[in-house]
Request: fold
Amino acid sequence: MSESGASAAPAPPASPRMSAPIVRDAYAARADEYVDLLGSVDAMSPIDRDRIGRWAEGVVGRILDAGCGPGHWTAFLHDQGHTAWGIDLVPGFIDRARAAFPGVRYRVASIHDLDEPDGTFGGVLAWYSLIHAEPDDVASALREVARILRPGGSLLIGFFDGEVRDVFPHAVTPAYRWPRALMRGLLEGAGYEIVSEESRTDPGARPHAAIEARVRA
Reply:
């Protein structure tokens, strides 16, 4: 539901546990502002557009954009010729996505509880979809994603990079930074093998990381 460029003023202190309803309500309260600022692929880094596009070229089968926010990455994948669906917790995001991209399928759903049969997707994009989740919830979400991916199916995850796992005051609601080694460990423990990883720090933005992984056959 977020992007690497979202670095506005700190949010007020959150509940001790950043549950899905807390995150949903925080984004719902600022959905229009968020869409206006970050609801277009044109507002995203061209490096990210290239990375996501190259990843999708290697996916065989349908792609799920899990935590699609305003739906721009789902539409980007659709425009590249992929069968892409978007899901998000925030009804306001889904309403805006359906209005902006009427040829693309969107629905309200959670990455933590994907109402899809086992092994039915070739790829899942989780681009900043888990930055607000508690560590145990990230692990369970990765297992849930693995469940709906076919053997050999691919996951591309984007997140905030950091030397230690810690919480910081993200613009909407507190978020986590993850060392890449810890995220790799979660992925491997959830049944994935690592294909590639990268990190960078753009001017004026927080350190960014992306890992591509596939479900072990």
